[in-house]
Amino acid sequence: MAWDTEGTKRKIREAAVREFAAHGPDGTTVERIARSAGVNKERVYNYFGDKRSLFSHVLRDELAKVAQAVPVESFAKEDVGDYAGRVYDYHRERPELARLLRWEGLAFDGEVPDEELRREYYRYKLAAVVDGQEHGTVTTSIDADHLIFLVLSLAGWWTAVPQVARMLTQPLTEEEEARRRASVVEAARRLARTP
To answer: pTM of the full predicted structure?
Structure first.
């Protein structure tokens, strides 16, 4: 019987996302990830290296997933608010990414692994803002890099600090979820609006 290498790697990555999102890179163990994946820990080391390498791999994969799931080409053609709403939806459905990013900020001092490579995931978003500014559909009163950072923050902060959202807003119901999304969309549009 042939060993399903790709299936095993997928199980390890899925288990690692769950464990790292819950406990961070310093708070989980390769043994716990392996147990959750239903494999021995030697498989984890063989396929992904040490725990830090696995964390970097998982985060890189999760960033690639969001880039693919929520693409943007140009805010000269696309509405900034609609984009922010789609990013909000992604984070609401997959809150692990926000948690992984917060853990990364806590665990790594200075430059993070694969930082230059990962900048590519953000460059196309920045280019979309620049294109919108060049075509007059997006304000130039906020620099493009700051504007895209603010839009992403508006969309993702709800899942990054759900406890603060819970304390400041109404209990989470379908209506409240829709209200939050509508606020994100409107706020992004106002931020990007040309005078």
So the answer is: 0.91
Contact between 58 and 100 under an 8 Å Cβ cutoff? The reply is: yes
CB burial readout 16-27, b (16+ within 10 A) else e: bbbbbbeebbee
Say if CB 70 and CB 90 are below 8 A apart: yes
Residue type, 123: R
Q: From first to last of the 195 residues of the chain, give the pLDDT tens digit.
A: 457 899 999 999 999 999 999 999 999 999 999 999 999 999 999 999 999 999 999 999 999 899 899 999 999 999 999 999 999 999 999 999 999 999 999 988 888 888 888 888 789 999 999 999 999 999 999 999 999 999 999 999 999 999 999 999 988 899 999 999 999 999 999 999 998
Residues 77, 32: Cα–Cα separation, whole Å: 46
* Structural domains of the chain, with CATH: 1-49 (1.10.10.60), 58-192 (1.10.357.10)
Phi/psi for 7 (5° steps) reads -65, -40
Q: Which residues contact 171 (CB under 8 A, 6 or more apart)?
A: none
Return the DSSP state at 27: H
